[in-house]
Design brief:
Blueprint lengths: L14 E3 H8 L4 H7 L9 E3 L6 E5 H8 L1 H4 L9
Antiparallel strand pairs: 1-3, 2-3
Length: about 80
């Protein structure tokens, strides 16, 4: 019997398929996420196949840069001591 994949609460893999990328980006649906790819969200770094066999994957770090460009690049003001 196949064991279902499990991601512990608060953990995100480095590479996200459609469903996880949409959830990570805070989109309500995968379709909403996909409709904004290339404008708000980056294009996937892997995109192969067509139709039901289509495979897309995003790097979490690419989505992080789109969500908060300053913190993802190490920019912004240093925290005072």
């Amino acid at each position: 019997m196949a064991k279902e994949a499990f991601i512990p609460t608060g953990c995100w893999p480095a590479v996200l398929r459609d469903e996880l990328a949409a959830a990570y980006a805070g989109e309500k649906t995968v379709d909403a996420f996909i409709s904004r790819v290339g404008t708000v969200w980056p294009r996937p770094f892997i995109e192969t196949g067509t139709g039901k066999g289509k495979f897309r994957a995003w790097r979490k770090s690419d989505l992080d840069r789109a969500i908060d460009p300053e913190s993802a690049t190490g920019g912004g003001d240093p925290v005072p001591l």
